[in-house]
Predict the 3D structure of the following.
Amino acid sequence: MCVCMCVGNRDACLHAGFCASVPQPPTITHQSPKDYIIDPRENIIIHCEAKGKPHPSFSWTRNGTHFDVEKDSKVIMKPNSGTLVIDISGEKAEAYEGVYQCIARNEHGSALSNNIVIRQSRSPLWSKERIEPITVQRGMSLVLQCRPPAGLPPPIIFWMDNNFQRLPQNSRVSQALNGDLYFSNVLMDDNRNDYICYARFPHTQTIQQKQPITVNVLDSKYSPSGERAPTFMQPPGMHSTSMVLKGDTLQLECIADGLPTPDISWSKVNGDLPSGRFSFHSFQKTLKITEVTDADGGDYRCLARNRLGSNHHIITVVVRAAPFWISAPQNLILAPKESGMLTCRADGNPKPTVTWSVNGIPIENSHKDPSRKIENGNIILSDVQTGSSAVYQCNASNEYGYLLGNAFVSVLAEPPRVLTPPNHVYSVITNSRALLDCASFGSPLPKITWFKNGQSVVDGDLYIIHKNNTLEINVARPVHSGKYTCIASNSLGNKENHVYLEVKEPTRILRQPEYKVVQRNGMAEFECKVKHDPTLFPSMIWLKDNMELPDDSRFEVGSDSLTIHDVREDDEGNYTCIRNTTLDQDSASAMLTVVEATPTPPIIMEQPDPPRDLELTDQREHSVRLTWTPGDENNSPIQLFLIQYEDSLHEPGVWVNMTEVSGTSTTAHLELSPYVYYSFRVLALNDVGLSEPSAPSRQYRTNPAQPEVNPSDVEVIGTSPDSITITWRELTGLESNGPGLQYKVSWRQKDVDQQWTSLPLANVSQYVVTGTPTFTPYEVTVQAVNEYGPGPSPEVVLGYSGEDLPTVAPENVKVYVQNWTLAEVSWDAVPLSTVQGRLNGYKVSYWKLRSLHKQDPEPKKPQELIFQGNETEGLLFGLHPYSQYNLNIRAFNGKGDGPTSSNQIFETPEGVPGPPADLKVENLNLDSLIVKWAPPVEHNGHLTGYLLKYQPINTTDKLGPLKELLLAANETSITLDNLKHSTRYKFYLNAKTVKGAGPTVTEEGVTIMDEAPPVGRMFGSVNSSVEEDHAVISWEYSGPDRNVYVEYVVDNSKEPWKTEFVNGTRTYQIRGLKPGMSYRVRVVAKDHSDATVHSTEELLITVPAMTSKQVDIATQGWFIGLMCAIALLILVLLIVCFIKRNKGGKYPVKEKEDAHQDPEIQPMKEDDGTFGEYSDTEDHKPLKGSRTPSNGTVKKDDSDDSLVDYGEGGDGQFNEDGSFIGQYSGKKEKDTAEGNESSEAPSPVNAMNSFV
């Protein structure tokens, strides 16, 4: 598991092993939402998870006071977690409502969760009421009120009839946002007695209905209501106000009365509706705006209009905002004595109040800390001390909500650690980007230095070193392949890591598939040959019309081709070849056209004929419309037209592509530039190719104007210490916009009070300004000017006059030898005034003068390290031990190197030697070996001796006991006696100096195998005993037991001998032998190469045949007795069943059915009033409905009928108030007996789910 610590600009991903050793204050990782509505039928689970080192402990508060979890047997806290599980079985869920907060703490601080408000979901019953019929005359408006009971969360409202069918809605009749049903005007068709409002409560999965409403519509001939202009029913009046929170969804509603039915339209006063975020609903009566922003505030006008007039209503929208983060507090890791800052920036409307706490205690009430102060809402930490780690809480709140952010401050002192895996290989394709990681951690923050093959990597055009220390090569080439080293350093130490970059050749398709026209039943072949990096192995995928090839044997995929046999019409399409490697891919496509195979000549497709009849219309100052007539397509549809132009004023005879238009167009609108003499021509393109150009149009000249652009790519280059060169890209004739083009070049010294010096130039692209001071900043502009005026105001470009070589060498050069391969060098920086340019850094040259042990054959070439910028110290890696070195330093800038410092000579101490050379092992006799070697090539000091270790190796490569010998430095061979004969030995040899042992070299040798005596000499007598399926072989043997085997084979067969290993015994059992067969057997001893060196005489054994032991079971006495007992038991069971049946004489079911034709009229038992035997007791199981919430708002005994039961064939009875309650989405759980009712009644489940 990887933990990411973000500490200011420190990002470190710590692997699990490292995390285990780093102290960390608690961090909340998971918690329940702030507003948590619970289901009263399920256990309450309040989440709180946190991490930290050591792992935090957890506690809770409830309604601001400590919540003792252990005292409540219904509450359990999960192990190693703060998550609470509250068992509410047998309890009322509202008993656990309240505000909960979790605290996670360890010895480094305390983190707090949000305040989690626990509320029980509620679905109260509709209040009992008597609804009188509503009488309204035709044409008048009407509102049917729903007014459902207030639930938590609020219910979803919909209107249906007695048949559970959704009431139709339209622009005249619609449901308002509050659930009421509005009629803009009433028709006679609205006369009905089953307007029923339903409320669905999502959490409890129940639906309740209001009592049906009856509407009586009077015909207007008795009480006429004439046509009228619109007035607003909702909202009433001319103006209203609506408040919405930023980020929420805004819904504005306008419902109008009128006859005819008014049309509703919306607009925003002094603005437009937000593009892409608004929509209309409920027949234009509702305007919905999602993801509200501050700009959505203001006045919105809804307009109602019919043929008699119009009316409008203004809704003023006020946008408020709950607090939101601008900059949330971030975790800090500081080293002792370091400083840092915790920021907490939030915004909202109104502006939120920001307060700080530390470890859950308001900061003003916490202990005073001299290293901590608050400025402008931020916490400033300075000179922090070990042990001052803590968790800080920032609370930003206003009347619409709050934000709580935890951020810990951990004070650590950690040496650098490189977290990127060592020796990782990065592979990229040539000319792509390469990213080499160097993830590190340390406190203080480590400094990262990159090297390539021992040379320092400089951040510049070639390499980019990112803030997270990743090294980027923007365009990787094969020359960039190699070994890269990153070194992480801080005041507590250094750590290096090596990675490797491999730059591969790209994958390219050399021979692409070509367009094919094939006759039906013919063959089509597409080629796709590729060039790729030899270390990559591309795969090939063929697609047809961007889909997989059909699963058809006619499609044959080769290594570099696709062949389609017996081509059919449906094979026509676009075929794509994709060549993939693990790093890149290339693809190419071609069309296949299938034509009918007839004796008539095939259709010849050719390039289209050129367009004709070019005409210029709609001529304006800077545009014109070009029209043309297409030429013949020549059996291949035209795909596009290419329009070209010639500028006979600036580039006569040169035709330039201007634009492309669809092959179905015959006109194009062309944008033109000033001061150009245009001629146009058109070319057509089909599958075969481009047509010939059309005849040119007549010439169209545009008027001159002042330039619209200035020269680009303006650069200021210091070419010499006393000059600057100004260069730019000249304008083309098309960009000049008029005659007399010149360039106004202006310059002045930066930060000096002097006027611009300007010079007009023509037909040039550079100018040299002389007489400038060395390396001085200048401001430069280049502006285009023609006879019609200057171009736009030019941008100011900054540059410097030329650099000169540095004049002073670094002083106070010191070398500190760290160990035999590493030294540290430091120097004093040169004064900037002597650099005469931009100081790029320092070059440290060092080379080996000689070895202190022997005379080197030739001096080593100097090595050079480059240190960037103002660095005045560095490390020298890869030094040779016990050697004398020379070193000097020089500063350098863009001009070159300055003078060299005086040489510093230093010596490296002794190190461990290199490996001994030419280790050999020679046979001497049966029990002796001679070990020979040569001294190491690199002594790296005075040799003090050699360490020789050796041990035997058996045939299973297991190692025997290890012996060690210390040898003098002048010895180069040794004879080892008393070794075990015919045995392989492994030898390990190290050279040693006072610094320790060097690398180990190894070799193996074998003592000479003594000559084999005659066959059987090592073996004595051999005996055997044979059973039905195995044989036991025993023998006498005086040789070693390590390689003894028993071999056997069927007599007179050509099968190979079977070999079984004997594990140091003189007896062996051969299993699995076949009865009646004869076998030849021998015992052999083998050497380490598995060659037989000793063997017994072959022994012939015969396995006896299997004797028959079968017995006739039918003649056994025990079997006859068992059969008689079973028969007797069956007879007794039959007698008992017959007696029971006679005692229980009840009249049959058929007689009951004849006596009671009505299945609902059934006999009752006299003793308990239940149905008689004919009644199935399963019919009296309670109906399975929704579970009643614990607040008692739904009485379980009133009605257990759910909508599911009703829809599945249940009784479907209603409560006294007309409601029906139950699960409308649960599974059917009733027995078959409960489903014997009529199934023809409409299912309320299907009806409800289709509308809700």
